[in-house]
């Protein structure tokens, strides 16, 4: 019988834990842990096999799958990328040097114009020199627009398009190493005894080998397709950019302002408005 004060006493209700929910949570946690351990085990085994294969190839003891035609194309791409990176470096240097020259011409033109106003006896001489520098500065800014467009396009080709293909090639080369590692493992098992335990291991190795073979062949096909499209794109881009570079440089040094401006219109290049203080005069195409 309860005789406590209802105003001061508290009633505590204890709820028994749901054993089913607790058990389910524990099983889920255990399942995640087992999954992680299984992943680490497979990763470690794969790493061991690939490292073993890589060392065997390096010391001439292991065989490797070779696609001579594809590997030759890959080497050509890497060599081309190195050469285009050099073109990009030199074109950027040209842009910086030329920008400095244009800025100097701009300052010199302003100085000549100021002296023309303050030196009556040399007004005409300072005046036409000021006009010449202003014209050179204007044409220089136009040429900078063309060169910056050239640099931007080469940069996209080298550091995005080519780099994307090289990333796929890296995946292909990793898949080739894995494929050869599992192939060598299967060949080694096939040379051993044929008891029940070994046959089970051979069957498992055959399945893993097939998975790696399919992955290798898929990535080899991806690389072949990307190399084909990259070559077509490279020719298209460079044809346009080399024509732009030649026409703009030729028109500038020939003093043909009309031809220089026409070249920029031909390639849809717009210049930044006067007063911009950065070397890049290129806006979006």
Description:
There is one protein chain. The protein has 285 residues and is mainly α. Helices cover 80% and strands 0% of the residues. It contains 5 helices and no strands. It has helices at residues 19-58, 68-118, 123-190, 196-253, 257-266. Helix 3 packs antiparallel against helix 4.
Q: What is the element layout, followed by pairings?
A:
Layout: H1 19-58, H2 68-118, H3 123-190, H4 196-253, H5 257-266
Helix pairs in contact: 1-3, 2-3, 2-4, 3-4, 3-5, 4-5
Question: What is the arithmetic mean of pLDDT?
Answer: 84
Query: How many DSSP H or I helices?
Result: 5
Taken from the alpha-carbon principal axes, the silhouette is elongated
Tally of strands = 0
- Percent helix, as a range, is over 70%
Radius of gyration: 36 Å
- Low-pLDDT ranges: 6-14, 277-285
- Strand % is under 5%
What's the end-to-end separation, in Å?
91 Å
Q: Main sheet, how many strands, which sense, barrel?
A: none
The helix/strand order is: HHHHH
Secondary structural class:
mainly alpha
From the structure above, extract its key features:
285 residues; mainly alpha; elongated
């Amino acid at each position: 019988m309860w005789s406590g004060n209802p105003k001061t006493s508290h009633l505590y209700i204890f709820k028994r834990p749901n054993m089913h929910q607790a058990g389910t949570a524990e099983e889920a946690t255990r399942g995640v842990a087992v999954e992680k351990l299984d992943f680490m085990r497979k990763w470690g085994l794969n790493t061991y096999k690939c490292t073993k294969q890589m060392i065997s190839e390096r010391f001439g003891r292991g065989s490797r799958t070779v696609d001579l035609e594809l590997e030759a194309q890959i080497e050509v791409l890497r060599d081309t990328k190195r050469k285009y990176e050099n073109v990009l470096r030199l074109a950027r240097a040209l842009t910086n040097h030329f920008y400095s020259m244009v800025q100097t011409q701009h300052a010199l033109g302003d100085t000549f114009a100021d002296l023309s106003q303050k030196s009556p006896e040399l007004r005409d001489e300072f005046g036409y020199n000021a006009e010449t520098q202003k014209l050179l500065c204007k044409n220089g800014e136009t040429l900078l627009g063309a060169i910056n467009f050239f640099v931007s396009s080469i940069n996209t080709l080298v550091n995005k398009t080519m780099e994307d293909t090289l990333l796929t090639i890296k995946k292909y080369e990793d898949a080739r190493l894995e494929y050869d590692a599992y192939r060598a493992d299967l060949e080694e098992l096939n040379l051993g005894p044929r008891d029940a335990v070994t046959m089970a291991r051979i069957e498992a190795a055959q399945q893993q080998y097939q998975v790696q073979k399919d992955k290798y062949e898929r990535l080899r096909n991806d690389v072949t397709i990307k190399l084909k499209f990259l070559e077509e794109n490279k020719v298209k881009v460079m044809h346009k950019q080399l024509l732009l570079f030649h026409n703009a440089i030729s028109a500038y040094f020939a003093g043909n302002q009309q031809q220089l401006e026409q070249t920029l219109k031909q390639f849809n290049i717009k210049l930044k408005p006067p007063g911009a203080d950065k070397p890049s005069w290129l806006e979006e195409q």
